[in-house]
Write a structure and sequence with these properties.
Layout lengths: L3 H21 L2 E8 L4 E8 H4 L3 H16 L5 E4 L7
Parallel strand pairs: 2-3
Antiparallel strand pairs: 1-2
Helix pairs in contact: 1-3
């Protein structure tokens, strides 16, 4: 079984592939935790934390990048996503 450290490294590497796009708009993402159950907890930083499109960015961009690189991840959530009104 893969260690959490290895999973964390793989998730960080997948985030590195999307960070340039986030930074273009003044944002970033911080990995907070990868749980034993495969849940990834993130914090959206900069403009991503307050953007009305942050939920879309999380699902269509960040989560997709993580799941493609680390298929064992079961869910991705951000602690500070702006809900879609």
């Amino acid at each position: 079984m893969e260690t959490l450290l290895s999973l964390t490294t793989r998730v960080e590497n997948s985030l590195d592939t999307i960070r340039p796009y986030l930074k273009t708009d003044g944002g970033d993402v911080k990995l907070l935790e990868v749980t034993d159950a495969g849940l990834v907890k993130l914090e959206l930083l900069g403009s991503c934390g307050s953007c009305p499109m942050s939920a879309m960015t999380l699902k269509a961009g960040i989560e997709e990048a993580i799941r493609k690189a680390v298929p064992e991840i079961t869910a991705v959530e951000a602690v500070n996503v702006t809900p879609i009104a």
